[in-house]
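Blackboard transcription, Thursday session:
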Amino acid sequence: MMGTIRAGAIIACLVLGLLFTLVSTVGVLRLPDIYSRAHTASQADTLGAGFAITGVVLSLGVQAPTIKAVLLLVFIFVTNPTAAHAITRSADEEGIEAWTVDDDRSDVDLAADAETGGENA
Amino acid sequence: MAYEALITDAFLAVAAAFMLLAIGMLYRAVKGPTTQDRVLAVNVIGTNTVVVLAVLAAGLGETSLLDVALVYALLNFLMAVAISKFTVDRGGVL
Amino acid sequence: MSSKRILVPVSETSTLRETVGYAVKEALDGARSDDPGLVRFVWICSPQTDTVTDEQKEAGEEILSRASLWATEDAGDHEAELTVETAILGESEYIFSPSDVAALLEEEVAASDIDRIVLDPEYDPGIGAPLLRPLEVELAQRTNVTVDEAPVERATRRVPLLRQTSAAGVGVLFGTAFVFYQILNGAFTLFDLVTGTMSATIVAVTLARVSLNRRPDSGMPVRIVRGIIYIPYLLYEIIAANLVVSAVILNPRLPIDPRMTRVRADVVGPLPTTTLANSITLTPGTLTVRVRGQHLVVHTLIPWARDGLFDGSLERAVRFVFYGRGSMAIPSPKERGDTEVLQPPTEEDGAASTDPQTQEDTTGGAE
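(Written on the board underneath:)
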């Protein structure tokens, strides 16, 4: 029924998917500000989801539901960056500054600064 | 035959692992500090949920879960855009 | 206040005739032959596609000449008391939003010493968004001239979302909807085919004027094929860059150097710009935060990603998809001088090259 190569490919896809999603989670927890977090949230996560769903597509093989999985894949690749763009743009509109290496403020300070800046304006 | 069982187990294990990662992401959703951080975290949790649904569809052979995943992905995107839009006073995001 | 110098932006509308009449009447009010009133008609190019075509420009010139003809006609015996001017604006710029239109009109106001703007109630330069109200607000903020709508007897039809459509547009939408329906259905039974045809017809007929931004043209299949060629390249870029960024994030020291940058991309139009912005966001290390016409504000996580962005390989690939192989051979944004780091390193880092003014720019958009 299922060849060794195909089983290996499915497992590889799932492992890679898990790995990149792990990177994305670590990134969102570790990185210093909203903009940097959006990087891993939109990209590593998209690739992780992409690999995992590719595994699903491989295991389903050629049948009607496979097209839905492919559709899901395309959809995630189009919407995830757009969502990240919308989120960071709303952060930018609120006046939250991006953190740089020579900035000694924490993310909480940056958020507070944006709030007071908004009151003054 | 042996491969089939192995693949099914792999799918279920991956689904569980994705759930764990989503729980890790909850820290950012609770902590913030900005609304955008929370939206971002919830968006990632949503993407993980979509993946879990798809993986379960393959693992359990329930292909109807793929329809649920499609709708969930749509709603997840809509949630991110809608909240981003309404956190800004003037609107105008996207 | 005598407001005899009037600016009228024109476009192809059913209320243009009455708007011209109103503007002329207002300009003549109080004008004398030694101190004539002025009506200046301007037509704004808005390239929906890649560049302004000669055809579009001809259409604009046609509208302008018609408007000035009407103006002389309305002036009648008072022709000597009225000066009529025409101009085409925005040929070299990409007009994207009401504020772009307002900026162009603001320049005109200053250049021609205008003291009043008369707007056609159905004015639409073709930027594909509801315009009139935001434009009035923008103009009131930017200039101190009077802005008013011409009081015209307008036809009741006023739904700005709708655009012109064609049989091809309905056909394309029908095909897409039908295929999508069958994909979601999975089974190709007679029942599915019949219900699919019915729902796709309803969708195509009711929504063709809303959902298609431009008419399908003969270039569409070619662009789709080139888009399919683009996907593997994009996937390769995504995976390669993801490996680099993953290494950085999993590194215990977290060696990141995030900075905001601004790039002027040499792609024009809603769809190419969206494709480029989404591709930039998908490639790890770079994230599009803002798009203003051709200007992209991009947050970059590591210097490696910043160099990649400034080398413009993605920009070249997007140009290939939309404009063909010939247009790929352009200088990179770095060579063109279209790049700018908005948060340059401070003195302590020993690499202060840009003036500190740019540091302010990052917050500029949020005021």
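Lecturer's comment: The two ends of chain C are 33 Å apart (CA to CA).
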